[in-house]
Each structure stands twice: as C-alpha cells, then as structure tokens.
UniProtKB/TrEMBL annotation:
Species for this entry: Bradyrhizobium canariense
Name assigned to this protein: Glutamate dehydrogenase
SUPFAM superfamilies in UniProt: Aminoacid dehydrogenase-like, N-terminal domain, NAD(P)-binding Rossmann-fold domains
Swiss-Prot/TrEMBL keywords: NAD, Nucleotide-binding, Oxidoreductase
UniProt domain Glutamate/phenylalanine/leucine/valine/L-tryptophan dehydrogenase C-terminal: residue ranges: 184-416
Length: 419
C-alpha cells in the first residue's frame, strides 16, 4: 500500500522492477531502495489581484539522502500530483548516481495553471511555496532547481525567501539562479547543450556526417530550444520543432537562432510562420537522424515506437518513453540508438552541482570551465553505460539505470540500517 499512484509513478515502479530483477536484488531490499524517504504536501494560500484568496497544493518528495543532500527541480503545472513528483524524484536518484554526483533525488511542484495567474501572483505563490518548505530543505538537506513552469526568476524568489528567514544570504539553497544572484555561467544552456553533445557523440560512433544529418525536436522550452541550437551548431538541419502551441516543419532546415529569439520574445513558437505550420501529432514519427523528445512524460508509447524513423533517440525530457515502448525499442536496437533520459538530460543536474559547489566555496568559474567539466562527466557516464550494455547484452536504459541503482544500493548497504 502506498500514497503514490498514477501512470508516471507506475512507470517508475515498472522500470525499477526490471532493473531489480536484472540485478537479482532480494525482495526484502527493494522497497527500501524504491520508496521515497519523505513526502511533503502543503497548502499555499495567496492573495489574488482582485483581493480574493486562492489556495494551491504543493509537493516535495525526497527519495534518499544516503549519498548527500537531495537535488531536484520544482515544476509549476496543472498536471502535478504526488505520484508524478515521486517518480521524478526516483529517476533523479538513479541519474545522480549514474553521473557520480553526491546527491539523492528529489522533486517538487505546485498544481497551478500559469496562464491563470499574474506575475505578482506567481511571485506570491513562489515565495509561499518556499516558505512552507523551509522546515524540510537546506543546502545540505535538499537543494531545489527549476523545472517545467519555473525559471531563474522563480529560483531567485525561492533563494530570497529562504535567506530572509535565515537572516543572511544563502545562495546555495537553490540552483538555476540568475548569474547576478549567485548562479553559474552555463546553467541555462546545460541540459539542452548536454543533449546535443551526447547526440553528436553517438553520431560519431555511428559514422553519421553531421553536415548531412537532420533532427526533430519535440518541445521548445529551455531544454528543447538549446538542444535544437546545439544540433544546429553541429551542422544538422533541424527540420521540425513543436511546443504546446503547435509545430513547424521545413525540410530545408528551420532558422533556429531566429526561432529562439521569437520564442524568447513571445513565449512560444506561435506566430513564427504560417507557411511552416505542421501537425504536432506527426512530429515524433518524421524521418530524421536525431529525434529529441523534450516535452512531457509518456509521449512515446508502443505504437509510436513501432513507427519511429530516427536513427538516434535522445531523450531530453524525463520519462518520455513508456515501458511498452521500451519493449519495442529493445527489439529495434540495431535500428534506433537510444540515449536514455537519465543520461541524456543529466547535463542540467551536473551543472547545478557545479553551481552548488561554487556557491559553497564562493569561487566562480568561467563558462568554458563549466562546459568542459560537464562534457567530461557526460563522456564518462556514456562510456560506463555503453560498456555495461555491450558486456551484458542489455538495453542502454537497463545499463544506465542498473549503474545508478547499484551505486545507491551499495551506499545503503555500506551505511547499514539505523538504528
């Protein structure tokens, strides 16, 4: 019996079961590895602009603190519930362990439709959420970061709220802050940049010429836009992109820098071009060399997986591929090279770790140093995954998750059970 439920949590449980069976983990160890250490649900009342009071429900799930503080994003979205947040926290644990960061996984969020609140109300909600979280978070307990629906400004409000209660500035309580408020150079671009870097790495493995290659990106938020920009810089033609407002397609290649400027100004790709509009439902199955799902969970089901026409599937989003789709992709290993989410989008948490370290030391690096260190960690994790997959004859997802689960399990077993 568990308080967690929903399709995203069920997916995380299913994936863990596959890994636990592969690693032959005894049944009496599994719940301790899988179930979160702590889950918090809070009410966040705010004054609306019209003088009324509205109450929003907020969550934070901390999966484990065995290796260090927990780390994870905070999303503001109408889809947020405790099951989704718990699943994302679990995935973050395996991700941090895979890339060698001294963190456990966490995730948080507020159930809110951002289109229905003003900027002043957003600030009030952000500050109230952090205020409610103060007893449960800290630079060595749980460090927040941005996610869907939040950004650098929200992180600055979080940091300021926490600092006011501490009576001193505590920049290391959150990552993904503006550089002017203790953030690090390269954090905004880190996740998408890492997706593009790993896709380029695989293209070299497969001897694909970047100058004659094509890419499709689903989702044009922070991750998708910078992934598209990175692939564009590598010489690929990004032939299609989409976001929540629609899709664009141009077989000659979209002008990604211009599209990024438009999205920054207008908040979406809507209005960029009426001639290039395309059916968003078809974007995932377009023929291309690199496909980047960088939007929501569970967008690639078994039917979509059967119809994928990409050579490389670079998972920019968390959990974009369902377990049923994984079974299909496992049979298509020779056709589709999967870069699983816990590796592919880990550049964000890697550079968040760099930001936390810099804040603790009050010593900041140049962007070139940040990027060099990010790529070094991604390369190391990629090699570990590839070696494990080839040695054991398993899928890339199984290999990557197994490495993460093994590290967490080893740390728990070494520390023992208290008391």
């Amino acid at each position: 019996m568990t308080v967690y439920s929903g399709p995203v949590f069920d997916m995380a449980v299913n994936q863990f079961g596959v890994i636990a069976n592969y690693l032959e983990i005894p049944m009496d160890e599994r719940d301790r590895l899988l179930l979160p250490k702590r889950a918090i649900t809070v009410s966040c009342p705010i004054h609306r602009d019209d003088g009324s009071v509205a109450v929003f429900e907020g969550y934070r799930v901390q999966h484990h603190l065995t290796l260090g503080p927990t780390k994870g994003g905070t999303r503001f979205s109408p889809s947020v519930d405790i099951g989704e947040v718990a699943a994302l926290a679990i995935w973050m644990s395996w991700k941090c362990a895979l890339v060698g960061l001294p963190y456990g996984g966490a995730k948080g969020g507020v159930n809110v439709d951002l289109s229905t609140i003003s900027k002043r109300e957003l600030e009030a909600l952000s500050r109230r959420y952090m205020q409610e979280m103060i007893p449960f978070v800290g630079p060595h307990t749980d460090v927040m970061a941005p996610d869907m629906g939040t950004n650098e400004q929200v992180m600055a409000w979080f940091m300021d709220t926490y600092s006011m209660y501490q009576g001193q500035t505590v920049t290391e309580i959150v990552t993904g802050k503006p550089v002017a408020s203790g953030g690090t150079l390269g954090r905004r671009e880190a996740t998408g940049r890492g997706v593009a870097y790993l896709a380029g790495r695989v293209m070299r493995e497969l001897s694909i010429d970047t100058n004659n290659a094509t890419a499709v990106v689903q989702g044009f938020g922070n991750v998708g836009s910078y992934a598209a920009f990175g692939l564009h810089q590598f010489g690929l033609k990004v032939i299609a992109v989409s976001d929540h407002t629609g899709a664009l397609h141009d077989s000659a290649g979209l002008d990604i820098p211009a599209l990024m400027r438009h999205a920054t100004t207008h908040g979406s790709i809507a209005g960029f071009s009426s001639q290039l509009q395309f059916d968003p439902a078809q974007i995932l199955t377009l023929p291309c060399d690199v496909l980047v799902p960088a939007a929501m969970e569970r967008v690639i089901d078994a039917r979509v997986a059967e119809n994928l026409k990409c050579r490389i599937l670079a998972e920019g989003a968390n959990g974009p591929t369902t377990p049923d789709a994984d079974l299909v992709l496992d049979k298509r290993r020779d056709e589709v090279f999967l870069i699983p989410d816990i590796l592919c989008n880990s550049g964000g948490v890697v550079v968040s770790y760099f930001e936390w370290v810099q804040d603790l030391q009050q010593l900041f690096w140049e962007e070139e140093e940040v990027t060099r260190r990010e790529y070094h960690i991604l390369d190391r994790a990629f090699e570990l995954m590839l070696t494990r997959a080839r040695t054991d004859g398993v899928s890339h997802r199984t290999a990557a998750m197994a490495i993460g689960v093994e590290k967490v399990r080893a740390a728990k077993n070494t520390r023992g059970l208290f008391p």
